[in-house]
Amino acid sequence: MSTEFEINSIDLYELDDTQELLQTSFWGNFKKATGGWQAQAFRLSLLNLNQELSFLVLSRKIAGPLWLAYVPFGPYGLSAEGVGQRIEKLTEMLKPHLPHPLLALRWDLPVVVDHPLVTLPPLKKGQQVQVPDTVIIDLTKPESQLLAEMERGHRYNVNYAERKGVIVTDHGAEAVAQWYALFQQTTERDSFKGHPASYYQTFMDMMEAYQGRGKFKARVFLAHHESEFLAGCIVSLVNGRATYLYSASSNLKRNLKSVYLMIWRVMQWAKSQGCHTLDMCGIPPDANPKHPLAGLYDFKRYFGGQIVHRAGSWDVPMNILYRPFRILEKLRH
Q1: CA–CA distance from 330 to each of 106, 107, 125, 311, 324 (Å)?
Q2: Potential cystine with 232: which of 3, 179, 226, 289 (Cβ 3.0-4.6 Å)?
Q3: Which helix (H) or strand (E) holds 188?
Q4: Which superfamily, per CATH, for 5-128+311-332?
Q5: Mean pLDDT on 240-266
């Protein structure tokens, strides 16, 4: 590889000029508080390209003395060409800085690709942590254009919910309990597991108190009709990018299409806050109707955004126990 790397440890707060929530000092501190992870920050210098990239690495023990290190959506700025080889070399340079014994270093690569990847030599496919495919909505457009670019049925549902008297309000950390009640209905209805209420409460509490070097904000949106809460979501804002993080909906009055109006209000709010984009945070890789999240593919893209595919989760094994570890991971999922 012709490009020479140089790795240096940096203060966690030096990460905060990013727009990626999962690569901020906030996320490192949040994961320490909620998951027992250790957080480290590094600066990668690509000497031949005169380029510097900063990124967060999380580490925790997973079995006896063995550690797993994980890079969530980082580093930003690597090109897709030869990225597998570069990540392998970068991992070897990082190894002395990370806890030992290290089972593997897992990279959730934010590199944008033309289509979902099946292989990325010489890396091994890792367990999916973050959803690599998403929809990005450009909020620099006028509101009238944002509405016009929605799929016709979505635009109708926004107007329908408003006509029927659905109201959407935004709140701080005090509204997490109301949102979580909706979230429990969602997990039961759609048969998936979420975090306990304390996880989301800690997220909002820490976000409201956070004193990072960037511009951080989070709000809880609730859609209600008369006295009943019908939908809710938690949205973050980091340096001009809003992210639709955690969504929930009631089993009641689903005919009122409250979620559509709620997302439109999120778009309006994020735009008013100076955000240039809204990340809808996860869709299936394609329109396959057999995918467990198939309904999200059309639902999210029909709000008018652009589908983005990222490289996804890839491992660099560091220990002979890596293979049985991956077998157990696959069995658990």
Answers
A1: 15, 17, 11, 20, 10
A2: 179
A3: helix 176-190
A4: Gcn5-related N-acetyltransferase (GNAT) (3.40.630.30)
A5: 97
Mean pLDDT of 234-240: 97
Q: How many other C-beta atoms can be found within 10 angstroms of the C-beta atom of residue 47?
A: 11
Alpha-carbon distance of 179 to 175, in angstroms, equals 6
* Average pLDDT estimate for 142-157: 98
| Intrachain domains 5-128+311-332 and 140-275 with the same fold | yes
Long-range pairs of 292-301 with CB within 8 A, sequence gap ≥ 24: 298/151, 300/134, 300/135, 301/135
What are the boundaries of each domain within the chain?
A: 5-128+311-332, 140-275
What are the counts of helices (DSSP H) followed by strands (DSSP E) for the chain?
9, 13
Q: Are 112 and 307 in contact (CB under 8 A)?
A: no
Average pLDDT over residues 13-31: 97
At position 173, the amino acid (one-letter code) is: A
Quick check: 191 pLDDT over 90?
Answer: no
Half-sphere exposure in the Cβ direction for 274 (13 Å, CA) = 7
Superfamily of domain 140-275: Gcn5-related N-acetyltransferase (GNAT) (3.40.630.30)
Q: What is the predicted pLDDT for the residue at 1?
A: 42
CA distances to 56, 102, 197 from 194, rounded to whole Å, are 24, 28, 9
115-135 pLDDT, tens digit each: 899 999 999 999 999 999 999
Of 82, 104, 118, 107, give the one whose Cα is nearest residue 23: 107
